[in-house]
Amino acid sequence: MVTAAIGQLCSTSSMIHNLSTCKLLIKNAVDAGAKALFLPEATDYIAIDAKESISLAQPMETSPFLLGIRDAAKEASLAINVGIHVPANNGKLLNRSCWINENGDIESYYDKLHLFDYGNLKESNSVEAGKEIVKPVETVVGRVGLTICFDLRFPEISLALKRQDAQVITYPSAFTVPTGKAHWETLLRARAIETQAYVIAAAQIGAHNSKRTSYGHSMVVDPWGKVLLDMTGEGSEPEIGVVDVDLEHRETIKKGMPLMRRTDVYPEV
Ligand SMILES: O=C(O)CNC(=O)[C@H](CS)NC(=O)CCC(=O)C(=O)O
C-alpha cells in the first residue's frame, strides 16, 4: 500500500506563479505521507491563445519550471507526474506528461496523441501530436502508464497500456466544464474497469483567463471502478487529495475476473 497525492490547481500564464503553487502542493503531499504527487495537464502554464502558448514553451531539459519541480522532488524525495509544454521542431509545441522520480530525474515522458479541437479550443493550432504510446514506467506507486486528457476518449491507448501490465494509468487533464459534466466521470470509470488498473486524473480547475475555465473534479478510480476521490474544489483553490494505491487489491480483481481478449476475432491493440 502506497499513499499518492493528487494536486489540483488553476494554472495561469505565469510560470513563476504556477511553480510556487506547485511547491506548496509538494509540501502538502509530503506532510500527508505521499510517495508520489500527480499534477494536471499544462501545469507549467495555460495561455490565452495559441500564439502565447507557443511563445512560452521551454525545452524540457532547461525549463525553469521543470527544473524547479525536479529540485523540489529531489529535496522532498517525492515522485511527480506533471504536464508541461515543450517546443516541437516545426514551430508548434508538444503537450507532454513527464514522470520525475524521487531523485528528481526525468524517468519517462509521453506526448499527447489526440488533439482537442472542439468549440472555441483548437489545440492543433499550437500543438504537434505525439507519435507513440510509451511503455509503462516502474515507479514507487507501481507500473504507471502515461496518457493526457482528451486521450481519455480513446480506449486503444489504455488497452495497450493494460497489455503491458500497467497498474496505474494517469490522465492529467484540463477538461472543459460542459464536457466534464457530460463525460468525465463516466470515461474515467470505464477506463479503470476495462483495464483493471488504478486511474489517476489530476485536473485543472477554475478560470485561467478571460477565455478559459476548467472543470476540476480531479479523480481517482480503483480497478473495480470505485471512485476513491473526487475533488469538487470549492473556490478553485489549489489543494491536494490523498488516496492509498493497493496493488494487491488490483491483483485480486484481475484474478477474480480474467479479461481474456478474443484476438482471434478482433485485432490486438
Ligand atoms: O491548452 C493547453 O495549454 C493545455 N491543453 C488543454 O487544456 C487541452 C487542449 S485545449 N484540453 C483538452 O484536451 C480538454 C479535453 C476535454 O475537455 C474533453 O475531452 O472533453
TrEMBL record:
Superkingdom assignment: Eukaryota
Record key words, sorted: Hydrolase
CN hydrolase domain ranges (all copies): 2-247
Protein's UniProt name: Carbon-nitrogen hydrolase
One GO molecular-function entry: deaminated glutathione amidase activity
Gene3D superfamilies: Carbon-nitrogen hydrolase
GO annotation terms (biological process): amide catabolic process
CDD domains given in the database record: nit
Organism: Glarea lozoyensis (strain ATCC 20868 / MF5171)
